[in-house]
Design brief:
Blueprint (H helix, E strand, L loop, with lengths): L2 H24 L2 H5 L2 E8 L7 H4 E3 L1 H12 L3 E13 L4 E13 L8 E15 L2 E16 L1
């Protein structure tokens, strides 16, 4: 892989993650599903949470999990300072610093949440498109009201 090909791959991965955040925040569930490999895995388990409740395998199951958690809420996600390593023409991994703000509707269990942490991800290029293959969200701090 040339340096130019590596830089292009990194930019494509940056745009992929931007789509992930935008589609989640705008509740574009079809667009959100399109960022994942069909056999992707995701683990969003919060500190002290149950991994069985907060993780999923398969793009459709990941979308269902996230949709159930945030569909009624207003969400704002920020991902920044990516550390991306392209390991081959079809494989890559990355760590993203993240911050999210969530406001749930009146009557919900929580009113707001402010979280900070990191996404640890692997990527796979299928049919010419980079996709998220695995995702692990680790949180450094969560403030809830």
């Amino acid at each position: 892989m040339t340096d130019i090909e590596r830089l292009i791959a990194i930019e494509e991965l940056r745009q992929l993650k931007a789509r992930y955040f935008r589609c989640m925040d705008t509740k574009d569930w079809d667009g959100f599903a399109a960022v994942f490999a069909p056999d992707a895995t995701a683990d969003y388990t919060p500190p002290g949470g149950d991994k069985k409740v907060w993780s999923a395998a398969g793009a459709g199951n990941i979308v269902a999990l996230v949709k159930q958690a945030v569909a009624p809420a207003i969400t704002v996600h920020h991902g920044h300072m990516p550390e991306i390593e392209v390991t081959s023409t079809t494989q890559a991994k990355g760590i993203w610093s993240m911050e999210d703000l969530i406001w749930w509707p009146e009557g919900a269990r929580h009113k707001t949440m402010h979280g900070m942490g990191h996404y640890h991800e692997t990527y796979e290029k299928l049919a010419g498109r980079w996709l998220i293959k695995s995702l692990l969200l680790t949180r450094l701090r969560v403030e809830q009201e």
